[in-house]
Amino acid sequence: MDFLALVSRLRGLAAWMTKRFRVAIAYAAYALSFVRGESYVRERWEGRESLAGAKRVAVFVHYDYHGIVHDFVLHYLRQLADSGFSIILVSNAPKLQAPHVAQLQECCALVLRRANVGYDFGAYKEGIAAIPDLAALDTLLLANDSVYGPLHHIAGVLDQMDPESAEVWGASDSWEIHFHLQSYFLVFHKAALRAPAFTAFWKKLRYVQSKTWIIMKYEVGLTRAMRRAGLRCRAAFPYRQAAAALIEAVVERNVLADGIDPVRKTFIQQVFRTINAGAPLNATHFFWDYMIAQMNFPFLKRELLQKNPARIPLLTYWERVVKQSTDYDTDLILRHLELSLKNRSV
User: Fold this and answer.
1) What sign does the dihedral 149-152-154-160 (CA atoms) show?
2) Quick one: DSSP state of residue 178?
3) What are the distances in angstroms from CA 172 to CA 136, 166, 184, 240, 287?
4) 111 near 131, Cβ under 8 Å?
5) Beta pairing partners, 111
6) For a Cys staple, 61 with which of 6, 99, 144, 156, CB 3.0–4.6 Å?
7) Is the pTM of the predicted complex or chain greater than 0.85?
8) InterPro entries given for it (predicted)?
9) CA pair distance 130, 132, nearest whole angstrom
10) Is the Cβ–Cβ distance between 58 and 141 less than 8 Å?
11) pLDDT digits (tens, 9 = 90+) for 254-274
């Protein structure tokens, strides 16, 4: 065995061991969840609107270590309110600053602050539990602040989520682990809300302090539970559409022969090989620009700009892409990046 092959095998072994270690830690965290409390809500504020008689409710999860509700979040909440949603904001922040609470009360029906136990799914559970009559709703939206946007008015996105086509909708989907709708934006129509499987999922959900467990068992598990119950689950902006567009560009339009810059060419080649091998990618990272510019995708993932874990090239174009494709005020993003980035510029 030559040296490069040995290095490749050792890397593969290290990755496998790391994955197994994470799974073991996740199961340990699940075991610890059995000694946790029933609720982690610490503060509660009533908003200007009432939940009584609401037909559309959004449970929106917020987190900021310093207790700030940033302008991009307020923009998102106001669009939801404009679209007829009564909003329950659930903050996992250690505190909420008084001026921000007052701003939230103006556009929300209820504001809850809880300990950050169980992450977003723990917050979703406590937000759903605060709805007076879940069965009376026509629509429940679960959303969080892990994205910038909506880059287009959210009403246009919601119009695509027809209850006749599917009872459960996500903005985007993923094929990693198993097919599932990504949990930063999920819509449940009346048939799903009345399904015993929906109630059972949230009743069984525990406050597990492991992101690996949350993804494996709750984000992936929610879609699987809904599908097993016979409910149709669809994405408004599916991964396969973006992936197929790249394959078409390479195979049929020979985009790699058009004299594009070497960085972009290398990236497209790598992504093409990955898709062709059947390995799923995170569309909101790898196809972010195509989705915004060509599919009218209304979000830009915060993690993409703040951390870029997959090392996507040419992210410095994000502002140009957003400005050319939408009317969104990119200063909302810039102000947040200026406060949150460390040793990084984008």
Assistant:
1) negative
2) S
3) 27, 14, 9, 10, 12
4) no
5) 45, 89
6) 144
7) yes
8) RgpF
9) 6
10) yes
11) 888 767 888 889 999 999 999
